[in-house]
Design a protein that fits this description.
Elements lengths: L2 H11 L22 H4 L3 H8 L8 E7 L8 H12 L4 E6 L7 H11 L7 E4 L16 H11 L3 E4 L32 H15 L3 E2 L3 H10 L17 H12 L19 E5 L11 E6 L2 E6 L10 E5 L11 E3 L28 E9 L6 E7 L3 E7 L4 E2 L6 E2 L6 H8 L9 E7 L4 E2 L12 E6 L6 E8 L7 E7 L6 E4 L5 E5 L2 E7 L6 E5 L9 E2 L5 E3 L2 E7 L6 E5 L1
Parallel strand pairs: 1-2, 1-3, 3-4, 4-5
Antiparallel strand pairs: 6-20, 7-19, 7-21, 8-18, 8-20, 9-17, 9-19, 10-16, 11-12, 11-16, 12-13, 14-15, 22-23, 23-27, 24-25, 24-28, 26-27
Helix pairs in contact: 4-9, 5-6
């Protein structure tokens, strides 16, 4: 990305841009209306944008992703259009597109780029690399679309490449079995089958919208007797000013001026649930004891949180969040050496042990110009030197805090482009981020039209049921309005923990079950619930079935009662 575009991104994100460079002026456009069935996948985003009013200013996080086509100026014009169309929405905007990155590589970088940023809407395009064996799929689009859904509750608008090759201007807009009309993937489906059948189907299967920009693009070219190159730069690949203006118009049409037959609450739906304290969830013994399903939990503060609101402690599944490995993440790694455009030196970092907040450095020790094998070592600013590996096999550091698959280190790619080895003092760097809080203190919003909220943690396994306990460190609990849960799988749940034990009789046996998130605990039985009747622990070892502990016992007394104790 060029320096001017970086400056443009920064000012746009802060809402400080005056005017943007003018894009092209188009001729008469063909009739175009986005497919309502595809726009329906964007209902949450559109409803949230429409909810802004002078007295209610919701936040909206917009992320662009993909390859070099998404680094063009039209991206920033589109973001600016949305700011103007929805003046009462607080936009947070970022562009994390990567030049020359195909779908397989974006699947890996998305973990840091999208998972950490947690957008409300992702606008994305990509080219496939097809058949990277580690992905375990016929192609890499399916795991990419799945990964986008696993990482975030965001709506996703996927669009195909604009027509580039001359023969694409007259390609059919319905699938026809003619492999000779396939300029890019000679061993795969024809390109128009990919863009009109396969990719829309795969995107929809993951809950994403598909923006069919190719049909109106081809119609525009035919209307005015134009070649594909008339909307492209001299490189005959990327959009020129006219092509960028057309792209902006086509994608903008999917996001503006929409109503839906069935209304949706953007904060209460399958992926996001908001439970209000006092009506849907309740203080119990001066604590919120909740069960939830999701990978992220936010706390929403009272609009007028008193200054003497207590500090609260947080427990997840009975643990301090800082002790849960899943609640740490990695930022995008710094760029590889010698390249003219940003390219992460490591596309994805994984871990097999509990992390800590620190910076990691990967040093290139060697590059074999004949085999392409790269040797490297890793060092943490707190962990210290943590081992050496090569791209011949998966590397696990001595502390097990760093795990790198062979293909994630991009030094060979950089070397093949530049024929230069990195300087001795060069390191690829990335940070470990703790995605949780052990304590928090309610604060009122800076304005009554805004919502004051914080993310308590990000990274819990979804859709597994978990337990959350919020307790004041001292004093009386107050200052919390609601708890909000985000579930990418669409199983969002937040509720009082309530009765954890379920009891059912079948023949001569009684089956008892309770959530795994509640902990092992123990089961006790008594002849009656009277306080004078003694409770005795039952014999038997519980089994784990799905998200619950289950124990089955012979019925000795059909009038007996049972209870679970932590």
């Amino acid at each position: 990305m060029s320096r001017p575009l970086r400056r443009l991104l920064a000012c746009l994100a802060l809402g400080l841009c005056g005017t943007l460079p003018v894009l092209g002026e188009l001729l008469e456009l063909p009739p175009f209306e986005p497919d309502p069935a595809q726009v329906a996948y964007l209902q949450r985003s559109i409803t949230l944008l429409n909810s802004g009013t002078p007295t209610h200013r919701p936040a909206f996080r917009l992320l662009f992703y993909g390859n070099s086509h998404v680094t063009r100026p039209w991206v920033y014009h589109l973001a600016n259009d949305l700011q103007k169309a929805f003046p009462y929405v607080g936009f947070y905007f970022t562009n994390k597109a990567l030049v020359a990155f195909d779908t397989a590589k974006l699947t890996r970088t998305a973990v840091a780029d999208i998972g950490q940023w947690q957008p409300d809407l992702v606008v994305v395009t990509s080219y496939g690399a097809f058949g990277e064996p580690d992905l375990g799929e016929k192609n890499d689009f399916i795991p990419f679309y799945r990964k986008l859904r696993e990482l975030t509750t965001a709506d996703v608008l996927v669009f195909p490449s604009h027509p580039i090759y001359p023969e694409e201007a007259n390609e059919p807009s319905v699938p026809i079995d003619d492999p000779d009309l396939n300029p890019w993937y000679p061993d795969q489906d024809p390109i128009y089958t990919l863009y009109y059948v396969s990719l829309p189907k795969w995107a929809n299967a993951s809950g994403h919208a598909w923006a069919n920009i190719r049909t109106p693009w081809k119609e525009y070219l035919r209307m005015h007797g134009m070649a594909t190159t008339d909307l492209l730069l001299e490189d005959q690949w990327h959009t020129n000013d006219d092509g960028g203006e057309f792209m902006r118009i086509l994608l903008r049409a999917h996001l503006l001026g929409r109503t839906f037959p069935t209304p949706m609450d953007p904060w209460n739906n399958a992926r996001i649930r908001t439970a209000t304290v006092g009506s849907e969830i309740h203080w119990d013994a001066n604590a919120l004891d909740l069960r939830f399903v999701g990978n992220r939990v936010d706390v929403i503060y009272d609009p007028e949180s008193p200054s003497d609101s207590p500090t609260f402690s947080v427990q997840v599944d009975g643990k301090d969040p800082k002790d849960i490995p899943e609640l740490y993440g990695f930022e995008r790694a710094s760029s590889s050496y010698g390249v003219v455009y940003p390219m992460p030196g490591v596309t994805e970092v994984q871990s097999e042990a509990l992390l800590q907040e620190e910076k990691w450095l990967l040093h290139i020790n060697s590059i074999d110009s004949s085999s392409g094998v790269v040797g490297y070592s890793v060092t943490g600013t707190k962990t210290g030197f943590d081992g050496s590996g090569t791209t011949r096999e998966t590397f696990v550091s001595n502390s097990r805090r760093i795990r790198l698959q062979p293909e994630v280190v991009t030094a060979w790619w950089a070397f093949s482009q530049t024929q230069k080895t990195p300087p001795e003092d060069f390191n690829v760097e990335w940070n470990v981020i703790r995605n949780s809080m052990s304590t928090f203190k309610p604060v009122p919003p800076v304005s009554p039209i805004l919502e004051s909220r914080e993310t308590l943690f990000l990274g819990t396994t979804d859709p597994v049921e978990h337990r959350l306990k919020i307790t004041p460190v001292a004093g009386t609990a107050r200052g919390i309005r609601a708890i909000r849960v985000y579930s990418p799988s669409g199983a969002a749940l937040v509720a009082d923990a309530g009765t954890t034990l379920q009891v059912s009789l079948s023949g001569d046996y009684v089956t008892l079950s309770w959530p795994v998130s509640s902990g092992g605990g123990r089961i006790e039985t008594a002849a009656s619930p009277s306080a004078s009747v003694p409770w005795k622990p039952v014999a038997g070892v519980p089994l784990v079935q799905g998200n619950r502990y289950v124990i089955s016992l012979p019925v000795l007394d059909e009038s007996a009662v049972y209870r679970w104790r932590n």
